[in-house]
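The data are quoted verbatim for reference:
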Amino acid sequence: MERYGSDTEGDEQETPLLHRGHENKVQRAPACCSSRYGLALLSSFGFFVVYSLRVNLSVAMVDMLNNTQQSNANQSRSVCPAHANPARPQHNHTASVYNWDSQTQGWILGSFFYGYILTQIPGGYLAGRCGPKWLMGFGILGTVVFTLLTPVAADLGASYLIAVRVLEGIGEGVTFPAMYTMWAAWAPPLERSRLLTISYIGAQLGTVIALPLSGEICFYLDWTYVFYVFGAVGLVWFVLWALLAFDSPNTHPRISEQERLYITTSLKNELSTSSGFIPWRAIVTSTPLWAIVVAHFSYNWTFYTLLTLLPTYMNNILGFSIQQNGILSALPYMGCAVLAVLSGQLADYLRETCNYRTVTVRKSFSIVGMIGPAVFLVAAGYIGCNYTLAVAFLTISSSLGGVSASGFNINHLDIAPSYAGILLGITNTFATIPGMVGPVIARELTKYNTIEEWQTVFYIAAAINLCGAAFYTIFGRGTVQPWAVHTFYSHGD
C-alpha cells in the first residue's frame, strides 16, 4: 500500500495494483439507484436553487427601475450596429418601480457578496462540528425566505434591499463548504470527479435557466414574481432535502449494506480519527492548499467578469440586448455545465481505468480549464463586429472553464477529505474577492465602452488565469497530506 507524507510529486508513487487489491476487499456498489448518486442529484437541485436566487435580481432589476431612467440609458449606441429585436406587446404591470441611480444599483447588485464572503470559513467549521445536512438546508432556506421578502424590502427602500441581499449572501455562504464536508463522507475516492461534477452542475443550470426565465416572468407577470417563483422552488427543495438527505452512509436508513460498506471501506484510511481537533497551523501553511487558493481566485476573476459584464459587453459593443435575447446569456453557462459533467466522467476514467495519478489529472484539467478560457477571451476582443465569432468565442471560453471542475475545484477532497469543508471555505473566501472587485475595476477601465478598453479587461483576466494555472501546476498535489489523517496510508490514487 502506498505510503505518503511528503509534498513532493516524486513521493506520490501510485500503483495500478492497488485499485485491484482494494476492490477485492469490498464489492463496488452499482451507481444506478444508489444513495450516493441520489445525493448528487438532490444537491444539484440545491445548487440550482442557490444560483437561480443569486442571479435573478440582475434580470429583475431592469423592470424595477423607472421607465424614464431606462429610456435615457437605452439612448446610448453600441459600437457595432444594433440588432433589431422583434416587437413584443406591452403588458400592464402593477409592480412598483424605483428611481435608483447607477451607484445605488451597483451597491444592490454587489451587496450579496459582502454577506457571502463572511460565512465561508465559519460554514466549513460548523459543518464539521454540527453536521452538513442541516447547515446546508437552513442556509438555503434562509436565502429562500429573504428572497420571498425582496419585494417588501424594495418598497421600504434601497437600504432595506441591500440588507436583505447581504443576508441572502450569508445564507448561501455556508452551502459549498457544507456540501464538501458531506462529500468527504459520501464520495468514494475513485468516483469523486463524477459525483461532484453532477452535484455542482446545478449551479450552472441555475444560471442557464434563471436568466432567460426571469426575463419571461418579468414580461408576462411582473418583477415581483421572479422572487416568488424561485422562492417557491427553493421551498420544495428544502422539503426534499429534509426527508431524503443524510450526513453520512452510516446514518442513512435506506442505503443498501453493499453500498454502505463500499463507501466506508474506501474512505477508512483517509478520514481523520481525531474528532474535534482541527490542525489550523498546518492548514494555513499548506502549500498544496495555497495552490488551490491561487487557482480558485484566478479562475473566478474570469468567471465573475463574464457573469456580471457579459450583458454589458454584448449590449454596448455588439449591439445585443441580453434581456431580449435570453438564450445568448445562457449559452456560455450551458456549455460550461455540459463540459463539467463530461470532464468528471473522463477524469475518473483516467484515474480508475488508465491508472493516471490524481495529481496529473487534476493539473491537466486545471490547465485546460484555465488557459483555454484565457485564450478565447482575448480572441473575442479582436474579432470586431463579427457577432457569430464573438458569441462563439465567449461561449467556448466559459465552456472550457467547466473542465476545471475536475481539476483544482475538487482537489480539497484529495489533499484533506476530513477538512474539505474548511479548506473550501478558505479558498472560496479568497475566490469571492474577484466578484467584489473584478467587475468594479473592469467598469472603471471601460468608461467610454471602446473595443480597445474591453481588450484591456480581457487581457487582465487572461493574465490572472495564466498565472493561477502556472502556480497550481507547480505546487498542486494529489495525495492526502500528513496533517489531515493519523493513519499514514492512502488509497493510492
